[in-house]
Amino acid sequence: QVQLKESGPGLVQPSQTLSLTCTVSGFSLTSNSVHWVRQPPGKGLEWVGAIWSGGSTDYNSALKSRLSISRDTSKSQVFLKMNSLQTEDTAIYFCTRSGAVAKGWFAYWGQGTLVTVSS
Amino acid sequence: DIQMTQSPASLSASLEEIVTITCQASQDIGNWLAWYQQKPGKSPQLLIHSATSLADGIPSRFSGSRSGTQYSLKISRLQVEDTGIYYCLQRYSNPWTFGGGTKLELK
Q1: Which is more confidently placed, A56 or A99?
Q2: Chain B within 8 Å of A11 (Cβ-Cβ)?
Q3: B41 in helix, strand or coil?
Q4: With bands split at pLDDT 50, 70 and 90, how would you rate the model's confidence at A101?
Q5: What is the pLDDT of residue B86?
Q6: Residue B56: its chain A contacts at CB < 8 A?
Q7: Is B95–A45 a contact, with Cβ atoms under 8 angstroms apart?
Q8: In whole angstroms, how large is the CA radius of gyration of chain B?
């Protein structure tokens, strides 16, 4: 079945770079896009960016200058890198994929990984 | 960026009551709208996509509608398990944007 699982450092110091991995199973990254969505504790959801099945990327314009999304299809992994982290980047980071029927809509989600930006 | 103004921010309703949550888009987004439910400590769950289509496995008491740039999620007979926070999402244009959320509680 379709599964996504985020992993990352948990704690990152201000001004440093965040590196997260989304490991997927049950589908191919060359046939499906994967998106990142984040949620500050107790707050709403924010779309971060996406890597499409062909390998191209789209980023939230508010984060674009600090953000990079890439993948390793052989390992079924998607990577998020965000530099110059600030306390406002503290959030749960989810990776998500569209549904087979609900094409393009986030139907499958990872459990999320909490990233805290603090010294 | 397209703004999604969601209302109300919070809502308390009784069992079996009809509940309606709305999202107002700042511009035309066609049917590029979805609704999600999120329970504490969990990932969001897709309820409605393409404004009016029920997602797989979602009870038929949930429905979505559109009137121009206003979108509504209706729960026809509120159940205990329907409590949580509801979000709308537009994917008409980059950046995809969520509404601010509606916290639904039982009265």
Answers
A1: A56
A2: no
A3: coil
A4: confident
A5: 98
A6: 99, 101-102, 107
A7: no
A8: 13
The DSSP code for B96 is P
A99 — pLDDT class (breaks 50, 70, 90): confident
Residue at token pair 């509608």: B65
Task: Decide: residue A1, CB within 10 A, 0-12 exposed, 13-18 middle, 19+ buried.
Answer: exposed
Which of A44, A107, A111 comes nearest B100 by C-beta?
A: A44
Using beta carbons and an 8 Å cutoff, which residues of B are at the interface with A?
1, 34, 36, 38, 43-46, 49-50, 53, 55-56, 87, 89, 91, 94-101
Helix (H) or strand (E) holding A71: strand A67-72
From CA A47, how far away is CA A84, in angstroms rounded? 19
Residues from chain A that touch B29, judged by Cβ atoms under 8 A, are none
Q: Which two tokens stand for residue A52?
A: 């499409």
What DSSP element (H or E) covers B6? strand B4-7
Largest CA distance in chain A: 44
Residue pair B21/B103 in contact by the 8 Å Cβ criterion = no
